[in-house]
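Here's what a typical entry looks like (MHD domain-containing protein):
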Amino acid sequence: MPVAASAIYFLNLRGDVLINRTYRDDVGGNMVDAFRTHIMQTKELGNCPVRQIGGCSFVYMRISNVYIVIVVSSNANVACGFKFVVEAVALFKSYFGGAFDEDAIKNNFVLIYELLDEIMDFGYPQNLSPEILKLYITQEGVRSPFSSKPKDKPVPNATLQVTGAVGWRREGLSYKKNEVFLDIVESVNLLMSSKGNVLRCDVTGKVLMKCFLSGMPDLKLGLNDKLGLEKESEMKSRPAKR
């Protein structure tokens, strides 16, 4: 499952909260105190970037002199959480002129709150593309005096964004024939004891898509389960082997 973050904290090296945003009410406001007490003050920051304390998981990463901590109360995809942190920092740097540290956060806390509301909804990551977000959040960040002003990049047309242009699909894609290939892969995992007792059993699956579509057309997909029903009916009609 995705991150489903309950809260996110930005701390300095002393453990002071620079800025935080709560997305769910399933964790208490004092969870950051648990992070300071059990992780920062015990000098265990470098041992493991994921710690579980009091039924909550802390996914944290140090960027410059700032710790970014994501608090999760349920089983979540940790890799997705780290990817969110990396892309969020890249987004902040694009607004702050390439700098991300304690001073940049203090100088741009209003802008950061606005961005945090856009890039995560109820704990689930959303669009983190700087090119797209800058079409709607036009406020400029306070640049550090030591950061150089980046070269201006052409901003995509807002009309194209509204009609379906996205940052992860380049323009001008063209194929002789519009085709989409889908593969549904399922696997059953079973763990049994030496006495034949089932210890764990789960089914996982994924849908693999290979796309050959020109441009950004509307696509409607429907899975035909007629063949599966016919096979099931055929198996039921067979006499049982004795």
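The longest strand covers residues 198-212.

More examples are in the samples folder.
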